[in-house]
Amino acid sequence: MTFDTSQQTLIADGTAAPLWLIELDFTPTPVYLATWGEDLTYGGKTYMGVGNVLSVGAIKEAAGSAVEQITLSIPALPSIVALALGNVEGYRGRSAKLSLALLGTDFNFVGAPKLRFSGVMQPIKIERSTGSDNSTSGRITMDLSRAGLQRSRRTEGRRLTDAQQRARFPGDTGLRYLRALINNPTLWLSKEFQKQ
Amino acid sequence: MPSVVTVPADLVLGPGCGMGQQRFDQADVSDSDGSTDVRVRGRPRWILRLQPPQKLKNNSAEGRRWQKMILDLQGRVNVLAAYDPLRRNPIGGAWTGTPQTSTVLARGSTSVTLAAGTPNNGKQLQAEDLMQIDAGFGTSELVRVVSATVVSGGSCSVVFDPPCRVAHAVGTNVTLTDPRGYFRNNADQVSWTYTNQGTTVEGLSLDLMETWR
Question: Is the minimum CB–CB distance between B39 and chain A shorter than 8 Å?
Answer without folding.
Answer: yes
